[in-house]
Amino acid sequence: MTCTEPAYAKLNLTLDILGKRPDGYHDMRMVMQSVTLADEVSVELLPEPGLDITADLPFLPRGEGNIAGKAAAAFFRETGLPQRGLSVHIRKHIPVCAGMAGGSSDGAAVLRVLRRALAPEMSREDLEKIGGQVGSDVPYCIRGGTVLAEGRGEVLTDLPPLPPCHIVVCKPQFSVSTPELFAQVRVQRLRFHPRTEELRAALEQGDLEAAALRLYNVFEEVLPRRCAPVFEIKSRLLDLGAMAASMTGSGPSVFGIFRDEEPARAAAEVLGEQFPQTFFCRPAEKNV
Ligand code: C5P
Q: Does ligand 1 have an atom closer than 6 angstroms to the CB of 152?
């Protein structure tokens, strides 16, 4: 039997870096939001052991080189359940290397399917712990919705949902290496930090405008010069009527939040002429 699970993209409403940790990672404080732009992850359990991961983008890694494969291996290792064969096919819609946790979300989708099929008694928290071994964004991607993520990204607190709105996401045609961008950050030298508590209060009041005004990502301060299109897209989104715009994750994708659908669709069309990877989407709800 094949089970197809949506793997929603993640946007950072805020991204703050609090300090470097002895384990080489950074302590973070981020408000994450999943959106309706999603990959489709089809999982088939087979009687004989073996892992087959394919995607409609042929350059994606197969087997355990893919986060979906790492997730499957971690699931059987941590649960001690007898190893089953797995055939996973991923239809990609989320741009790759975009700051939208596309790979982590595919891995999280595999973990959700495996829990449902093989360990329905397992708590969501235990599944998220397994996810944490696969990647820093995977625990959040298991849960989805609007969440405060702290620690390495795995300490999760549910927040009230972002009020209904329309979102345009645009990925310029270059990539940014996450570890290299982290290496550029000197926490003491960051000039601004997001006002995470004020965003939280805006979400609690269901105030979209106040929430939009709190978007902020500290990585924008340390982007190399070649990433100038990030700022160009931000100002284009604002000119086209977005209430606010920000880069997501380690970039280079930029998103704008719109109150109304029509200007958002028009903005997506205009930006899409210059940046083919431009998407219209909405906030998505929690997965589990
Ligand atoms: O956990 P994940 O494999 O997704 O992290 C990729 C890289 O991003 C890490 O190797 C590390 O360089 C950086 N990272 C970090 N602090 C975090 C999360 C990721 O420095 N909280």
A: yes
The verdict on the CB of residue 178 being under 6 Å from ligand 1 is yes
CA distances (Å), origin 216, targets 113, 128, 140, 211, 234 = 33, 26, 19, 11, 12
CB 243 within 8 A of CB 258: yes
82 CB under 6 A from ligand 1? no
Classify strands 216-217 and 2-20 as parallel, antiparallel or unpaired: parallel
3-state secondary structure of 18: strand
**Protein residue with its CA nearest to atom 19 in ligand 1:** 25
Task: Kindly report, residue by residue over 210-258, the tens digit of the pLDDT.
Answer: 999 999 999 999 999 999 999 999 999 999 999 999 999 999 999 999 9
pTM metric for this prediction? 0.97
pLDDT tens for residues 110-149?
999 999 999 999 999 999 999 999 999 999 999 999 999 9
Mutation choice for ligand 1 from 10, 20, 25, CB with most ligand atoms inside 8 A: 25
